[in-house]
Amino acid sequence: MSIPADSARRSSARSAGTAPAPLYGLVLTGGRSTRMGRDKAALPYGQGTPQLERAVELLRRHVERAYVSVRADQQGDPLRARYPQIPDGETHSGLGPIAGVLAAQARHPGAAWLVLACDLPLLDDATLTHLARSRDPARLATAYRSSHDGLPEPLCAIYEPHSHEPLSVYVAAGKTCPRRFLRGVDTLLLDEPNPRALDNINTPQEYGAVSNAVTRDTEDTPGASVRQLTVQYFALLREQAGRREESLRSPARTPQELYAELAARYPFTLGSEMLRVAVNGEFSDWSRPLREGDNVVFIPPVAGG
Amino acid sequence: MPTFRFSPTPIEPAALAAALADPACGGYAAFEGWVRDHNDGQPVQRLEYEAFEALAVREGERIIAEAVTRFGVRHAACVHRVGDLGIGELAVWVGVSAPHRDEAFRACRYIIDEVKHRLPIWKKEHYVNGDSGWVNCERCAAPAATGAAPAGASAHTHGHRHSHE
After folding, report:
1. Do B3 and B77 meet the contact criterion of CB atoms below 8 Å apart?
2. Which of A155, A236, A280, B91 could form a disulfide bond with B137, CB atoms 3.0-4.6 angstroms apart?
């Protein structure tokens, strides 16, 4: 949990009299999401916002620059490609989160890094503000003490530039656990202002519970007057729209309004009274309120059998 | 075996029937819908079926479950084709096994009627004269078409709530 006093003095001396290193941010997205069964960075919350987008937006308010840490084979992923990326170094593949931290430090050796996991859907501004304000640049790292087990939380923490060398030595010794690394070096440990902020989610069950809580908090967000929707077309409507599917931003509040908007754009010959509508794969009312991310299908008169 | 599914390839009724076999069942009833060579006075050359499969499979499974509950049959299943079909090809198959024939017949009839009314499946007819059209969508002034003729059945059922009776 502590390090020898002479080592602490050295690291203090190194930064004494100089301005703290600029604070950059890194969202780690290289995890395999094995227990979740799908990419945790892409999991939607609230009105359908992918978790990676939520994490980057939050982080940007607390750092000078924000990056996304990716495995080399994830660089083409469209969600990750929306942000500046730092791919893991080739020699560190398979190391997990530490590979991302080392790659970021190698890219910008003069920066301190606020490192975030991308599976913290309850993380809030208060938690990052407290971390950044309490940061001690003379230490190797500043981190929260877990409300669950009292150990350092390595994936919502600030790593100072001079942590790069001991981290590299740690990895060279064959070790990969960032929590044990922080326990073994001079880490400032803080108490969490919000004990649930660092709850991570690993399973579909945990995602379901947290997703419902987040949705309840955000569904009445003012200003959400335009929604990102997807529409699928079948049969006659597919031919008249000239496409099978599209994504669009629309002010339509209901399927009824959405059909009117689309009928003005495409040469549809069927009135809505001839159609049924499905939202997110189930039959729906025409007056159901549309939400961000909804999938809408207009169903022409059927003719099975 | 899933109780409702789509098939992009020809349906094999013998194998499907075998899957419904049960020593407790003394009756098996099946319905086959075939592609007919004419509809509404127009010679038909071939058909195209398209489905919103995600919703149709869920709704199809619900129809089967309703039939099992309502008529007390032991097993029921339905397979519907998608893609291009020629004249005489099997477009839809329904099979039911039950202790006695009456509930098997009734469940079978219930399933095919509900499938035609409720599932998001569309049929495009290609006529001998080169025209084509989506059944129930493009000639709404004309009587609704059924295309696939019920084997041995004379009842004319409608594919949509807005079909013309």
Report:
1. yes
2. A236
What's the maximum distance between 2 C-alpha atoms anywhere in chain B?
A: 51
pLDDT of residue A15: 44
**Which residues on chain A place their C-beta less than 8 Å from a C-beta of chain B?**
232, 234-236, 238, 269-270, 273-274, 276, 278, 281-283, 297, 299-305
The answer on pLDDT for A141 being more than 80 is yes
Report which secondary-structure segment, H or E, holds B105.
Answer: helix B101-118
Q: A23: which strand partners?
A: A112
Question: DSSP letter at A290?
Answer: P
- Say yes or no for a CB contact (<8 Å) between B159 and A305: yes
Of A273, A276, A300, the CB nearest to B122: A300
Q: What is the phi-psi region of residue A48: left when phi exceeds 0, alpha when psi lies from -120 to 50, beta otherwise? A: left
pLDDT digits (tens, 9 = 90+) for B123-163: 999 999 999 999 988 754 333 333 333 333 333 333 333 33
Kindly give the residue spans of alpha helices, DSSP state H, lying in chain A.
5-15, 51-60, 78-81, 97-107, 125-134, 164-172, 178-184, 204-218, 235-241, 255-265
Q: Say which of A238, A273, A302 has its CB closest to residue B121.
A: A302
pLDDT tens-digit series, residues B12-50? 999 999 999 999 999 999 999 999 999 888 999 999 999
Closest partner CB to B137 (pick from A278, A281, A300) = A300
Q: What DSSP string describes A249-286?
A: EE--SSHHHHHHHHHHHS---S-GGG-EEEETTEEE-T
Q: What is the pLDDT of residue B139?
A: 53
Question: What is the pLDDT of chain A when averaged over all its residues?
Answer: 88
Q: Which amino acid is at A38?
A: R
DSSP string, B11-80: --HHHHHHTT--TT--EEEEEEEEE-SEETTEEEEEEEEEE-HHHHHHHHHHHHHHHHHHH--SEEEEEE
Question: What region does A151 belong to: left with phi over 0, alpha with psi -120 to 50, or beta?
Answer: beta
CB A51 within 8 A of CB A41: yes
Residue position matching structure tokens 């059945």: B153
List the beta bridge partners of residue A49: A45
Q: Tell me which DSSP letter residue B138 carries.
A: S
- Residue B156: the pLDDT is 34
- Rounded distance between C-alpha atoms, residue B80 and residue B5, angstroms: 7
Query: Rounded distance, CA A270 to CA B72, Å?
Result: 40
* Two structure tokens written together for A180: 């044990």
**What is the ipTM, given to two decimal places?**
0.83
Distance from CA of A276 to the nearest CA of B (A): 9
Give CA B65 to chain center in angstroms. Answer: 16
